[in-house]
Structures are given as structure tokens and as C-alpha cells.
């Protein structure tokens, strides 16, 4: 069943669990996989795309996962080709884990990060704070890794929802005191053509210890339904 507009779904999967990964991907995806020089990276890419296809296939119903066709927005946000299913989705991979968010009634973005991978990226995480946010009590000092990572995944989720990714500087988004909350409403301070007039709901998820995850949903969302994917 499709998610309710105010309740996006998230599916997650530890990497290395999908056997036969790569059998249902397209020629295009196989081509992309070939560009990875290391075998583990190639396998991880194919496993992620297989997982994404299986999840989307379970919502789209018809056609089967192998026949799903994607198209891309200007900066690469994938969507299902017109007529396949009326939903938005956002996929993320990080060492050890994959996740995908599915929504109806508005755009969705998801970001997932293995925290240990970011331990040495403190500078980049600090640069992602807007000047105003950097002066908030939660960020003062800028050395609480958990809060910095929460800020990062929330912003990446918002930027992925609208398809901009890092073509926009994360520090341009001012989240205010919402970071650190399990769920908060966010609205750009000025009219922003990419984010539109609506408010956005940002929800922080604790899927697995050691990982940070955020979902950004256009409009109101009361919660997220989280499921571990089992084949
Ligand atoms: C979107 C972006 C932040 C994702 O970064 P990442 O480190 O690969 O992170 P994640 O694992 O969380 O996300 C990867 C997935 O995001 C999705 N994605 C790609 N571009 C996207 C975009 N512009 N907006 C939203 N989602 C996007 C894809 O599903 C991708 O999975 P794939 O590699 O299997 O195709 C980064 O790719 C980006 O900034 N892209 C926009 C700018 C750019 O480089 N465009 C190049 C093509 S024009």
C-alpha cells in the first residue's frame, strides 16, 4: 500500500544481504557499475540499485522491478518514468547500510551516514552550519559530533528532496533550533524557488546504532514508518 501523504515510509537494509544482486538492474546501471574500479564498490552499487528496485517494485506493483525505468532531474535526482507510480523516493548508501524513503503528496529526501566515517570530516561538518546556526547553544564550540552530523543529514535530506544535492551550499540553509529534535518543521526564511512556499518536515531517525539518518518531507508529516527490508 502506498504511504499516506503525512507518513512517508523508509526501508533499510544492511549491505551484503541481497544475494543475486545485479540480476534485475538495467544495462545502464550495469554500465555505471563497470566504472567502479574496486570489486566491493561495484557490488555495493549493484546491491543498492537492486534493493531500490525491489522496494519500488513492491509499491509500483506493475511492472516488475527489473522493468522499472528511471529518469533524472537536472542535477541527477532519479524518479520513476511517468505513469509508473505516483510517488517520490530518495535513496542513500553508506558503508554497511542502504535506505530508501517513499512518499506521496510531496517531495522527499533521505540521507544516511555512518558516523565513524565522519569523525575526520569535522571541518566539513562545521562548514555546513549557517552563521546564525553556529551561534545557537546546541552548536556553540562546534565540537559535538552528533549534533554536527544531525545538521548535516538534515540538510542533505532537504537538498536531495528538491534534487539540488550539493549544487547548493548546506550552510545557506538555516535550520534554527530544530536540529537535535526528533521532528521539526522547516521553512526557508525567504521565498526560495527550489523549496517553494510550503513548510517541510524534517525527521531524524535512529535506524541502527552508529548511523545517522534524516528524512525531509514536503509539507506536514506526523511520522515516518520505518521497516527493515527482508527478502
Ligand atoms: C545528491 C548527492 C548529495 C548524493 O551524494 P552521495 O554521497 O552519492 O550520497 P547518497 O548515497 O546519500 O545518495 C546517492 C543517491 O542519491 C540520488 N541522487 C543523485 N543525484 C541526486 C540529486 N541531485 N538529488 C537527489 N538525489 C540524488 C541517487 O539515487 C543516488 O543513488 P545512485 O548513486 O545509486 O544513483 C550528490 O550526488 C550531489 O550533490 N549531486 C548533485 C550534483 C551533481 O554532482 N550532479 C551530477 C549529475 S548532473
Note down, in words, how this protein is organized.
The chain has helices spanning 27-34, 39-60, 115-118, 122-127, 131-134, 145-161, and strands at residues 9-14, 70-72, 78-80, 88-94, 97-103, 108-114, 183-186, 200-205, 211-218, 225-228. The chain is of the alpha+beta class. The chain has a single domain (9-228), classed as Ribosomal Protein L22, Chain A (Alpha-Beta Complex), CATH 3.90.470. The chain has a four-stranded mixed beta sheet, covered by helices on one side. Strands 6-9-8-7 form a four-stranded antiparallel beta sheet. Strands 2-3 form a two-stranded antiparallel sheet. α1 runs antiparallel to α2 (39-60). The longest helix has 22 residues, at 39-60. The chain binds coenzyme A (COA). Coenzyme A is lined by residues 48-49, 75-78, 90-93, 111, 156, 160, 163, 165-167.
Amino acid at each position: 500500500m502506498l504511504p499516506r501523504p503525512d507518513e512517508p515510509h523508509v526501508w533499510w537494509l544492511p549491505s551484503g544481504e541481497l544475494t543475486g544482486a545485479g540480476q534485475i538492474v538495467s544495462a545502464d546501471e550495469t554500465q555505471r557499475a563497470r566504472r567502479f574500479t574496486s570489486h566491493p564498490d561495484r557490488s555495493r552499487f549493484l546491491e543498492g540499485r537492486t534493493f531500490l528496485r525491489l522496494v519500488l517494485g513492491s509499491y509500483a506493483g506493475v511492472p516488475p522491478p527489473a522493468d522499472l525505468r528511471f529518469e533524472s532531474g537536472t542535477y541527477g535526482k532519479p524518479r520513476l518514468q511517468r505513469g509508473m507510480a505516483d510517488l517520490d523516493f530518495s535513496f542513500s548508501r553508506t558503508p554497511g547500510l542502504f535506505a530508501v524513503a517513499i512518499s506521496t503528496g510531496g517531495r522527499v529526501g533521505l540521507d544516511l551516514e555512518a558516523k565513524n566515517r565522519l569523525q575526520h570530516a569535522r571541518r566539513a561538518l562545521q562548514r555546513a552550519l549557517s552563521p546564525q546556526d553556529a551561534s545557537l547553544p546546541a552548536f556553540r564550540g562546534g565540537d559535538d559530533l552528533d549534533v554536527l552530523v544531525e545538521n548535516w543529514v538534515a540538510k542533505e535530506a532537504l537538498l536531495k528532496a528538491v534534487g539540488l544535492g550539493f549544487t547548493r551550499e548546506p550552510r545557506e540553509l538555516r535550520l534554527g533550533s530544530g536540529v537535535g529534535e526528533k521532528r521539526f518543521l522547516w521553512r526557508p526564511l525567504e521565498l526560495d524557488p527550489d523549496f517553494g512556499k510550503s513548510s517541510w518536515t524534517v525527521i531524524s531517525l535512529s535506524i541502527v546504532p552508529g548511523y545517522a539518518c534524516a528524512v525531509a518531507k514536503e509539507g506536514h508529516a506526523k511520522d515516518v514508518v520505518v521497516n527493515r527490508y527482508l527478502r
